[in-house]
Amino acid sequence: MGIKHKLPFLRWSVLRMAVGARNITTTGQIGDGREAAAAEYVVANARAGDPDDVIATIDRFAYEKSFLINIGDEKGALLDAAVRRAGTALALELGTYCGYGALRIARAAPAARVVSVELAEANAEIARRIWAHAGVDDRVSCVVGTVGDGGRTLDRLAAEHGFGPGSLDLLFIDHDKSAYLSDLRSILDRGWLHPGSIVVADNILVPGAPEYRAFMREQQGRMFDTVEHRAHGEYQSLLPDMVLESEFLGGG
């Protein structure tokens, strides 16, 4: 990809993100328009119908223009590998943001259907625009909602997207860190995972999901077989982070 910028901490876009942290939890966006700008940049600069180039263009925007909070290129490679190991035909993502994670899943599993759940309609619209430009919108879709809404979004996933017992091959969790464990439990309660399904969770260290990590350690060799991948935070090489890759063994 040729991008060498790994030290974003002094950039205004990163400082602005820190100021906008509260916006992220309430609106799903940082609050300075960078998400919409990323979509404009993709449409203007990436080759239409080329997922590789769209992903590379999003990465370039995050390095050179404004820092983005998607999984990024380094940790994204871990997601790619997990998608392939799962033999993914149906994937569910929690936390769409600008559509980057779902696009990586779709690229790694060219025949898979990918459904992403996103709290913010504005993010959903941005993601759909990017997916359309990449040429994957025929099999990647976004449902606006949240797993923690009393079952309404899960019911919609079942009714409109075919989720049911044993149907889910790959679950990617990258949304509200405090909801990681409760949302996983809700999906387990539905029985959607099957032995061999893989659950990937980002940002285990930063911002951090300690309850989720503790659960996976408790369930090691019982319900899940988990590998802890040490990496770095998005689009830099100073701040450590971790991705958990957990193969479902059954039970729950």
TL;DR of this structure?
With 252 residues, this protein is α/β, with parallel strands linked by helices. The chain is built from 11 helices and 7 strands.
Tally of DSSP β-strands: 7
Structural class: alpha/beta
Please, what is the average pLDDT?
Answer: 91
Total number of domains: 1
What's the CATH H-level homologous superfamily? Answer: Vaccinia Virus protein VP39
Largest sheet: 7 strands, mixed
The CATH topology comes to Rossmann fold
- What percent strand? 15-25%
What does this structure look like?
One of its GO terms (biological process) is methylation. The chain has a 7-stranded mixed beta sheet, with helices on both faces. It has a single domain, classed as Vaccinia Virus protein VP39 (Rossmann fold, 3-Layer(aba) Sandwich). Helix 7 links the parallel strand 2 (113-118) and strand 3 (140-144). The chain is α/β, with parallel strands linked by helices. The protein has helices at 12-19, 21-27, 34-45, 51-64, 72-85, 100-108, 121-134, 152-161, 180-190, 204-208, 210-218; strands at residues 90-94, 113-118, 140-144, 168-173, 193-201, 224-232, 240-248.
SSE map:
Blueprint: H1 12-19, H2 21-27, H3 34-45, H4 51-64, H5 72-85, E1 90-94, H6 100-108, E2 113-118, H7 121-134, E3 140-144, H8 152-161, E4 168-173, H9 180-190, E5 193-201, H10 204-208, H11 210-218, E6 224-232, E7 240-248
Parallel strand pairs: 1-2, 1-4, 2-3, 4-5
Antiparallel strand pairs: 5-7, 6-7
Helix pairs in contact: 3-4, 3-7, 4-6, 4-7, 5-6
Keywords: Methyltransferase, Transferase
GO biological process, one term: methylation
Protein name: Methyltransferase domain protein
